[in-house]
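Researcher: Please predict.
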Amino acid sequence: MLPRHRHTAGYATVVLAGCFEEASFAGRFVAGPGDVLLHGAFDCHANRAMTRLPLQIVRLPWDDNLLEGRFRVRDPDALALLAERDPVAASAQLRAELHPLPRQELHWTERLAQALRLETSTRLETWAESAQLAPETVSRGFHRAFGVTPKTFRIESRARRAWNLLLRSSAPLTDIAVELGFSDLAHLSRTVGALTGAPPSYWRRHGVAAGLAGQGHSS
């Protein structure tokens, strides 16, 4: 088990051999050969091995913070060979070959993660009642599945949504704070700063690539 951790730069994991489970902002997935897990910048996730077979993966650059989750490719070995020569070309080839997977019924922990990620006012007690579960069961079960409490998951998810939005929108930061349910601009700044290491004004000035380089962040 690899405890929940954060990666500042986006990347793609192409699985060549072995099998593991990952719980991230995008959801909870079991990935095997031919699967691809896409991560945007400042993703937080935990990993757990699902087999004793050695895990073989290829990590490629990924700069799309809005396209995340589990996908498939037909020939992961060909991607691995290309990556040895040219990782940038391999990333472009990966994007061209990505296949979405059919939707599957979500476990309640995954449904809760989705609600916490997309809704600013989800109350744990109300959600637990609607799912016919005790709040204590929901809190413990979510922590086992995602490696973090529902409260922390929601805070980090909202900070990440704010970070993405402020980079893609010219809307005033105060408007973004109101839209995403922050109490005020200071609350937005503290939360984004805690996740990314820099306040919103920094990212507005520098953008993603220059901002990450300037902060000296590494995965």
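Model: The first helix runs from residue 76 to 85.
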